[in-house]
Amino acid sequence: MHRLILAILCASFLPSAIAQTGVLISTAPPTSESLRIVQTLQLPSAVQGNFDHFGIDLKRNRLFATPEAFKAVLVFDLSTGKMVHQIDGIARPHAVFYRPDLDQIYVSDGGDGSLKIYDGETYRLIDHIALLKDADSIGYDISRKYLYIDNGGGDVGQPYSMLSVVDTTEHKKIADVKIDGDTLEAMALDNYRPRIYVNDKAKNQVVVVNRLTNTVVATWPLTMGKVNVAMALDEQRQRLFVGCRSGQIVVLDTNTGKELQALPISKGVDDLIFDPATRRLYAAGDGAVDVLDQTDLDHYVVRGSVPSGAKGKTARLVPELNRLFVAVPGEAGKNARIIIFEPVNTQPAKSVVVEPKAQVDSPISEKIVLDTLSTHPFLRKLGLHVIPPDQQNMVLVANGNATRIGIRTSEGDFAAVKDGKTYCAKIDDGAFYNIKMQMFDAQGHRIGILVMEIPYTSAVDVADAIHKAESIREEVEHRIPSLEALFHHA
Q1: Per-residue pLDDT tens digits for 108-136
Q2: Sheet containing 72-77: order of strands
Q3: What's the confidence (pLDDT) of residue 11?
Q4: Strands 299-307 and 25-27
Q5: Is residue 242 a contact partner of residue 261, using CB atoms and an 8 Å limit?
Q6: Shared domain check, 390 and 278
Q7: Is 177 a domain residue?
């Protein structure tokens, strides 16, 4: 009888709870394995205390670990599982980034407040960029090769923190963005539009920074979770995942800043990862990794919680190796260790096609596109296709994501604009309008194709999306005197 009453109560209250929290989540069968241990790297007994963020070097198959109190970065050869080096002289290592084209290692040092740069082969210190104390989390701009570093705040007695911008090619700090709040945590970068999302733990909010102007453009308060420290981004679907130590992943729409739902996880999260290829979330908390699969735009399946070890909350997914690394501090009778998991039972990953690129040099085109993205922050993507002088094929000459520049225009793009009308398709998996149109210069001469994406939240229907897109095209046209002008250099 008691069980019957309990069942009736659950049936009565559960729908109400779901409606209030907006949770669109289900649980996978208990036999559905999500992570499998394949190797454990044992660390020397001298390595004590907590770890911070991993770094990875796929060029030499190296893993970088950051035991903070050990004052060094540990380097592992993943082909042998052996520790091959330790980079000493780092007061408090927090985050590591490896840039393969320059063969350089960048380490944020919270102890002396700096970014240290090392030679990737010899580990020799080659440069030192002064920041403020507590230099911590980092984010990398793949287009401009800039590194963003949290620093300052409470450790230097200030009620605000700095988001410093470092040119990793020139080894120069080029800007500081002042953010209200004495503790900043993880960040995520939108590659196709000039935004950074930063966890402002002191204010329990997400701060949005325009990367082109280095200004704060929005703050999004969090009400569905507390102590926001971890972050991941699904850029294709414009979903920002914020890991809160109170035991939630708060999901926000990056088009509006609106909180959509809170996904329950273990308390004490420190690292949060989203793999766009398999649409899987990994939340590393205090001793376990929670795994969730995204089944569509706003629905998730819990794949379970996989034990790691006491205070094992630092994690790094390397999709190229299909491995998840989790650092576990030493405890009574056990040395610190790094557990290597293999993700299993994932959704099928889409194959990545490496597209050939033409050599393109059109900084004027790129400036026009970036300025337009900055002026119209609702745009998800914007790209300009033309035939460069002395070339025969139409290619992408400007895009918010500069790594795409030089890719040939697809047959689908040509077909979409063949009739001269503006093409507009609704894409539900991402909730946006995919728009393609013929492009003209200021004189009305056809020069190529303009493509863009407008989210559902910024247009009421297809007609409205087309109207907005054509208005933006007109703005861009006025800045292009001629095709040849796009390739002039001052």
Answers
A1: 999 999 999 999 999 999 999 999 999 99
A2: 55-57, 62-65, 72-77, 82-88
A3: 32
A4: parallel
A5: no
A6: no
A7: yes
